[in-house]
Amino acid sequence: MNSTSHPLHLCHLKKSTLIINRLYILFHSIAILILIFFRISSILTLFHSKNQPLIPHLLIFISELTLSFLWFLNQSFYWRPVTRTVFPERLPEDDQLPPIDIFICTADPRAEPPLGVMNTVISAMALNYPAEKLSVYLSDDGGCPVTLEAMREALKFAKMWVPFCKKYGVKTICPEAYFTSEEDVDEAMVDSHEFGADKHRIKEEYKLFAQKVTRMSESESCIPNKDHSAIVEVMVDESMHDQRKMPLLVYVSREKRPSHPHHFKAGALNALLRVSSLISNSPYILGLDCDMYCNNKNSAREAMCFHLDPNLSSSLAFVQFPQTFHNISKHDIYESQLRCFFKTFWLGMDGIKGPCLSGTGYYLKREALYELPLTQEDINLMEVKQCFGSSNEFIRSLFKKYNAKVLDCEKDLFDESLQEAKHLASCAYEDDTKWGNEVGFRYFSVTEDFYTSIHTHCKHWISVYHMPSRPTFLGSCITNLNDALIQSTRWSAGLMEVGLSRFSPIIYGPTRMPILQSFCYAWLALFPTAFISLWILATIPFLSLLSHITIYPKVTDPFFLVFLYVFVLSNLQHMREIHSIGASLQTWKYEQRVWMIKGITSHLYGSTHAIMEKLGVKEANFLPTNKVVNEDEVKLHQMGIYNFQTSSIFLVPLCSLVTLNLLAFVVGIIQIVLHGEYVDAIFIQTFLTFYIALMGYPVLEGMMLRKDKGRIATKVSCYSLIFSVFVLSFGRFLVAY
Ligand SMILES: O=c1ccn([C@@H]2O[C@H](COP(=O)(O)OP(=O)(O)O[C@H]3O[C@H](CO)[C@@H](O)[C@H](O)[C@H]3O)[C@@H](O)[C@H]2O)c(=O)[nH]1
Ligand SMILES: [Mn+2]
């Protein structure tokens, strides 16, 4: 087929958005430069006249510089917005499509209910792709028998489910979602008697399956086993041999020993890379988190529209689909949908050589993780072994094409392969090799996707973002503040670890990738530093107000207009962005609030963690996000009411700062009422205290008005009082100089 007249995909530049974005960037940059000029000149004047303390001015300047720098990096995402269309009907015949290995990771059945994990497994098996070309690998980092047994049950159910989906063209291929949502097959089918009967039958089967799995996870021990040898089970049965009608299913639980670091998810993925290379060795990998089920059965074909494009193929490392979630509330108070990342930033990066890898929902070329410089003829076996480890079979697989025949081989050979697979999943296998360092997923940071992605792009691989209108993968989003803050602390720690290392994209990137792309990566690595600005903005204006210090220009001063411009325009741009994806204006408020909450708490703690890790005081930690559904919690979330059941370490700073700002606002108003002429001098700082108190209203409500379980406990309010007294006395002392 002619690839230029009938391309497999098209990329469109969004011209009008591009023009708006660049104009905004131009004017905003000018405004920021004026503000910097204002600060420098007013600080210099103060320095000579000494008629006001200098520290508050300096701190505010630091905060403005930090925010401006982050803003500047952030604009790279807006530089070249594109969208993409695919034409899967132009793909070659099924027998010419490449095989795909699907990797699903699970770690802890207490946080990740096995039934949910199995739904992800089953949905992956039902993808619209030749069954004999799909192999599904489940990595169980919990090492729990429950998961293995549940998987056996899942295979039994899948044998009915997959044919059912194919026969009726079911669109929602995840059984749980299918049975809880509205009808989705063609209208014509709905009347069909046969369909009705089949659906009824399969629904009953699903109920039985779900009951069995739930019962197992309730009765058996679900505590992750941190000390066990490797388990690899290829789920074979008669139907698998000739003419595979079902995707292959493999259970892998790598060896775990307390003495050996296991490198969290990246370690699990590397074990899967090696084990799968012996069994199916497919050239492409679909990576999924255990809660991200497949919701668009055509995703593999759509991804192949890019991977099989002759113009892209040799340099394309992965096709990333957005992370989308099935349980987003219309009041997304925790910003669980991560709109700014998946609906704006990744799209923006796509216009400049491709988005960052985002951990789940990607079709990745296996080769991109190996970086093989050698051909089989000139390999130096010693060198290769130092790189990939001692397994000859694995090294052979590096040069071998897809290996679908493994199941047909004799029993002995098969057992031998399995033995080798366990060796590859043992924890000592990686000792003295380059796994996690130059080969496979990288270990250095807990945000393994981000860190691996930087290296991939630095080696001139490109990536593609594809965001079809029907969500391709759906995960379960966070529904409470505690999980949101824990996750965001882990991310901040992981990102800042990279940001503070020699691989910091701002230094390491520019010579190795397009400059705009390195700015995007730099923003991602450094955005937690916004905590510096947020802490300053939440304290200095109110402290200055209480100490009669003016840190902003008067309302009558021309510089006032520049401040006003920056504030209003950045918010308008934010609103435009939200409006363009059809979200409500409330989203703007929630996002602003979450940014403040996370900035004050998790970004501070995450950054501190990263620094302590650098100093060797702390170890990396990966607490899987909770995926258990709690009815009460979901109810609060759906109603848009915050659930403040979280640790005081998060709540105390929030409660204190919001209350103090409210207090200062009241004092500010009194000052204004008493000395009318004063208003123009303290307008901005009074407004800031008001803005913070307003944004923090739910915190005030949680402390003072609410009586339910999700309120802020009296104990926490007391701690906050103590902390406030500390902030006040220390702060008043600080701003006196
Ligand atoms: O030791 C571990 C820890 C986690 N996981 C798995 O990793 C996945 C992601 O963990 P989750 O707790 O859901 O973390 P999130 O913060 O929601 O994950 C996001 O952030 C991670 C780190 O950047 C990425 O790996 C994920 O793909 C991305 O969805 C889950 O399937 C876990 O089972 C493991 O396999 N082993
Ligand atoms: Mn997750």
Describe the protein's architecture and organization:
The protein folds into 2 domains: 26-78 and 514-623 and 637-734, no CATH class; 90-323 and 358-477, Alpha-Beta Complex (Spore Coat Polysaccharide Biosynthesis Protein SpsA, Chain A), CATH 3.90.550.10. It contains 27 helices and 13 strands. It has helices spanning 15-49, 55-74, 114-125, 145-168, 175-180, 187-191, 193-219, 264-279, 299-307, 339-350, 367-370, 381-388, 392-399, 411-424, 448-458, 481-499, 505-508, 515-526, 530-546, 558-580, 585-600, 602-614, 631-639, 648-674, 679-695, 697-704, 714-734, and strands spanning 9-13, 82-86, 100-106, 134-140, 231-234, 248-253, 284-289, 293-294, 316-320, 324-325, 362-365, 462-465, 473-475. α8 packs antiparallel against α14 and α19 crosses α21. The model has no long low-confidence stretch (mean pLDDT 93). Bound molecules: uridine-5'-diphosphate-glucose and manganese (II) ion. Manganese (II) ion (MN) is lined by residues 289, 291, 475, 625.
Descriptive labels:
8% strand; alpha/beta; cell wall biogenesis/degradation; transferase; binds manganese (II) ion; Spore Coat Polysaccharide Biosynthesis Protein SpsA, Chain A; eight-stranded mixed β-sheet; 737 residues; 27 helices; cellulose synthase (UDP-forming) activity; three-stranded mixed β-sheet; 2 domains; binds uridine-5'-diphosphate-glucose; transmembrane helix; transmembrane
